[in-house]
Amino acid sequence: MCGFAGELRFDGRSADLAAVERMSDSMQRRGPDGCGSWQRGPVALAHRRLTIIDLSRAGEQPMVDSDLGLTLVFNGCIYNYADLRRELEALGYRFFSTSDTEVIIKAYHRWGTACVERFLGMFAFVIVERDSGRLVMARDRLGIKPLYLARTPGHLRFASTLPALLAAGGVDTSIDRVALHHYMSFHSVVPAPHTILAGVRKLPPATVSVVEPDGTETSRVYWRPSFTRPPEPRSAGEWQEALLEKLRVAVERRMVADVPIGVLLSGGFDSSLVVALLARGGQRGLKTFSIGFETVGGLSGDEFAYSDLVAKTFATDHHQMRIDNRRLFPAVIGAVAAMSEPMISHDAVAFYLLSEEVAKHVKVVQSGQGADEVFAGYDWYPPLAEVPRREAVAAYERVFFDRPRALVEQIVSPAYLPPEDVSRQLVAAHFDAAGAETTLDAALRIDSTIMLVDDPVKRVDNMTMAWGLEARVPFLDHELVELAAACPPALKLAHGGKGVLKEAARALLPAEVIDRPKGYFPVPGIRHLEGQFLETVRDALTSRAARERGLYREEYVARSLAAPNERSNLGINILFQLGLLELWLQQHVPGG
Question: Which of 496, 497, 528, 586 has a beta carbon 3.0–4.6 Å from 592's, enabling a disulfide?
């Protein structure tokens, strides 16, 4: 929907509005339709708007409700805002706009921080109380919308992107050693609150944080899905029916907007099911979008056969986008510039290019992200099915980690290594927590609440919002996630993963789409490091900035440059993993 930024000072000084507006200016592409700023004493807020609900000026932000003494900046969408508005109107509240933004203000005034438990949607927001000087930050249950923080003894700054905080200045840009370890070991995922920079943190998902005028802060987690079976058993057919109905509702919820909504149709099962449910619900002429790349080295770069079949079956207004390989290298550089944090998946480049084209047609799309984590679609889940709970951490490490601690020590310079295996400790703590019956339950829990948030979801947000395009993800509807978490693992693992959903979809989708081999977002032209792509990575790793920083052992960098397409345990290009972090740092951090 947009981007926002702000500052709260607790040193007696007025907020630095110029710094806040620099943050806002850096996020212009997230909100190209308008901007605004507001200051009152120690607090300043700024906002970049992408108009989707209430296109009038009444929906502009920062939104000030003088009667209630509340000011808000917000990024996201509250899908049930109309129902909440009616409830609040019955309680005596009067509205000056038709936006979901104003519903958040009134809901907070009525229910306090518990208002987040009533919201169905994706959101990050900050509310300022005029009379108390208190500031409240919140983030949605699955972390779909980001919120980055930079705190010093004198102030707290916050923004929808990490680079926005850097634009304000005064951020500690030294490397966070825990984050670096996760980046090199935990499949390049850096969970909240850490980021790769020591001076920047992120508010964890499903968290409300209250900051008092003196800087005192209290936080609470308001949602945790339980991966345990319900007391009343259900048959396989009942699970299929219940989950499909929840997904139908989730898809329907995400059609709320005052502008047209499309669907990113990859040709895979997940996005195809979204299209099928919308068509069954009465949507006609739905705009769908597919992307394809040139075949390189015998590796196909598109799945048009499947997306065309789905588009034809449901008579969508389909847009097939073929990308020339000459656009790939500029897109890699553009994608790195759009990243709030380093992300190594080639999907980022595909989403960046797809979003550029789709944004020419619509402002909002639904997308199939999250189904693999919620319904056990990845190939690392079946090996965990029979693993005893006491062996779960070691088994998960074998199938998900890029490399164990011993290999991390061979790559990372000693000065940047934390004293312990923090990535294994992270997994162990999550697996030890109550509320997951089996090893697979524990793996799905960490993947859907940690990995998903700081890999696929973040990637989609960054790449779509780089072009002023809002992506909505029905598979991350929290009610659907809760129900799927309770579903027996064996039903999810069936038919190569997502079995319970595949069986439920047989009355809706062609068998060719349901029973096809699992595909990924193929970008053959950059799968292998060569040519200009390789030289850019080489230049980044051998640059003066990289040598002075000294993240990696020189002998390991030299070895990787000599074997530029060596891959890690999970198939990650090792040299690209090293080089991307340097490229990101040199692109975003002042002084490189």
Answer: 586
Question: Residues 150-163: pLDDT tens digits?
Answer: 999 999 999 999 99
pLDDT (tens digit per residue) in 437-471: 999 999 999 999 999 999 999 999 999 999 999 99
- Cross-strand pairs, 4: 47
Q: What is the CA radius of gyration of the chain?
A: 23
Distance (Å, rounded) from C-alpha 243 to C-alpha 375?
Answer: 10
| Beta carbons within 10 angstroms of residue 169's beta carbon | 13
Which 8-state DSSP code applies to residue 148? Answer: E
- Partners of 3 in beta bridges: 48
What separation in angstroms does the CA of 297 have from each of 325, 466, 526, 559? 13, 30, 11, 25
The DSSP annotation for 219-240 comes to EEE-----BS--SS---HHHHH
Number of Cβ atoms within 10 Å of the Cβ of 92: 7
Task: Specify the DSSP class assigned to residue 123.
Answer: E
Cis status, amide bond into 193, omega within 30 of 0: yes
According to DSSP, residue 456 is labeled I
The CB density around residue 255, as the number of other CB atoms within 10 Å, is 16
Considering the entire predicted model, what is its pTM? 0.97
